[in-house]
TrEMBL record:
This is Preprotein translocase subunit YajC. Residues 88-121 are annotated as: Disordered. Keywords: Cell membrane, Membrane, Protein transport, Translocation, Transmembrane, Transmembrane helix, Transport. The keyword Transmembrane applies. The keyword Transmembrane applies. It comes from Geodermatophilus arenarius. Its main location: membrane.
Amino acid sequence: MELFPLLLLVLAFVALVVLPARARKRQQTQTQSALAIGVPVTMAGGVYGTVAGLDDPATIQVQIAPGVVVTYARQAVLQVRPVAGEVPGPVVSGETVVEPAPDETTPRDDRPGDGSTGKTL
């Protein structure tokens, strides 16, 4: 009975520290395995770019603008983003994906004003 509080502390430590760290490590491993040339990524610090090279196992080359390639540590990849035009999320077979129609009407401003500038008198 004297070891019960110690056992509770050990279980709390495992639940609050070890399990979330293991989940973060698993997520990072999945992200690293999804890296390929041409894949859009988000880097630490909020930099968006596209993978341009994977030559070194410890680094990654990311193109952040046309002709601008930056080298990062692989661990700096926070997220692999979906390719432009790709539907985000899982699509169930038989499900129809409908693109939203562009809004063809422009909103009108019926307030009194002096012409196209929209200044109110």
